[in-house]
Amino acid sequence: MQEPEEKKIALELLETEQAYVNRLHLLDQIFYTELMKEAKNGKTVPEEVVKMIFSNISSIYQFHAKFFLPELQKRMEDWSCNPRIGDVIQKLAPFLKMYSEYVKNFDKAVELITFWSEKSPPFQELIADIQKRKVCANLTLQHHMLEPVQRIPRYELLLKDYVRKLPPESPDRDDAEKALEMIFMVAKHSNAAIAEMERLQNLWAVYQRLGLEDDIVDPSNELIKEGPIQKISTRNNSTSEKYLFLFNNMLLYCVPKVIQVGAEFQVHLRINVDGMKVRELNDTQFPHTFLVSGKQRTLELQAR
């Protein structure tokens, strides 16, 4: 008898899960544990650094080794009388949200490994020593650390395949489709977490360029556009270089600092977006000019 297609995929899920748990064991029980032990002895790097590199890998390892893998194993042993995995994945899928923290931290972790490998030869030597072991299969720590980042997309692909191969009358159809939807949401959650982190990092970089004025620093602000602009002075028919930052709630009219110590710009004026009007002007002497008028002030500006 030919094995049904959906069983082959369920078995592939189980086999890849076993291999994945071994990889997590290597990361948590060998790399993390040994690096932490040396850090505690004060021989390599501060303990905090090791914690930052490995983020929440211990929770991820415990979850897969103690819950996800055993549940899948049990299911595959009972396949002949209960051919389904959808309900198991549904039950455990919400826990996969903890991957967001690990994925968000990944780039920072790789940076820390590079930085401290150069700064602390004993740290580099210990990593190199572990990498030489048979269990590492000639792959670097960074390579192994990438595995959890790729795991959820892998579940998604396997489950999609599983749902596609299920016969219409399969008792697992409803549960498997729900499980796939949940895994899809977890992947989205993880991507959204990365996007949000990048947005906040970019926002923070802008605040630093503006000199971190207390009343501007707000995590809910959204930067829409920024760039140089010419301010037109009607008094003496001349222009001077200025810089604009447009946020969702305010327009910042800034002057570039000549001596850039700390901040790059000085905020000269803030116009609230609420009630602000922008009108194009037809000025032959100054093309591409427009008028920005707000409750605070009106500016005549010229774009490039």
From TrEMBL:
SUPFAM superfamilies: DBL homology domain (DH-domain), PH domain-like. It comes from the Eukaryota. GO terms for molecular function: guanyl-nucleotide exchange factor activity; zinc ion binding. Gene3D superfamilies: Dbl homology (DH) domain, Pleckstrin-homology domain (PH domain)/Phosphotyrosine-binding domain (PTB). One of its GO terms (biological process) is cytoskeleton organization. Transmembrane segments: none annotated. The keyword Hydrolase does not apply. Keywords: Cytoplasm, Cytoskeleton, Metal-binding, Phosphoprotein, Repeat, Zinc, Zinc-finger. Its main location: cytoplasm. Residues 5-193 form the DH domain. It is found in: Cytoplasm, Cytoskeleton. Pfam families: RhoGEF (PF00621), SOS1_NGEF_PH (PF22697). Residues 222-304 form the PH domain. One of its GO terms (cellular component) is cytoskeleton. PANTHER family: FACIOGENITAL DYSPLASIA PROTEIN, FYVE, RHOGEF AND PH DOMAIN-CONTAINING PROTEIN 2. This is FGD2 protein.
